[in-house]
Structures are given as C-alpha cells and as structure tokens.
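Feature request, filed as a ticket because there's no other form

It would be nice if the structure record came with a short human-readable summary line next to the tokens. Right now we just get the raw output. Example of a typical job, pasted below so the devs can see what we mean:
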Amino acid sequence: MARTHLRKRILLPLLVLSLTTGVFLAVQLAEADQDRWDLSPEVQADLLARYPKEIALVEELWDIQVDRIDESTREAITHTANHHLGPSYRFSELMTEISLAKRGFWSVKR
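Raw output as currently delivered:
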C-alpha cells in the first residue's frame, strides 16, 4: 500500500512536469516561426476535426470562430494552450502537430 502511495506521489508531479514541458516547447516552436502559419487546407481541416474540444475552448474564450489554423488564429490558440494545461485538454498534442506541420512533417493520411 505504501509503495502505491509513493508511486502516485512521485508519478503525478512527473506527469504534470512532462505535460507542462511539452506544451511549453511546442508553443515556443510555434512562436519561433510566427510568419509561417500557412498550413494547407487539408492539414487545417484534419487538425480542426481531431481537436474539437480544444478549438471549442479557444472559440469560447476569445469569442471567435476558428474555421482555420493560420496567422489570424495563432494568438488565440497559443495563448489558450499556455493557460490550459492538464489532462482535460490536448493542447500539447495540438501545438506539437501544428509545429510539425509548419515544418513539413505532416501527412493527412494518418
């Protein structure tokens, strides 16, 4: 019983730290190349379809409609990602995929 409790006490902070680090790095990569948010329409549609909960939160908080992922929505997405870490949302994955797509490492056929 004590081992399980100890594991939880150690693993939870490590999980939170890794999630925080992942989001931070993904956002930094995304912001490092601010001029290139020109993702193809296919990639944008795929990302919007795969992250509806995250996109809905961005739309709610910023009172905008996010129908594309480009320079016009960059600030809203990155700001929301920075402030909503944790298991409830998958902003870390979204920002990582945006960064990869911006650098050409993307295939819609996943």
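Something like this underneath would help us a lot:
The chain is about 70% helix and 0% strand.
The chain has a mean pLDDT of 82.
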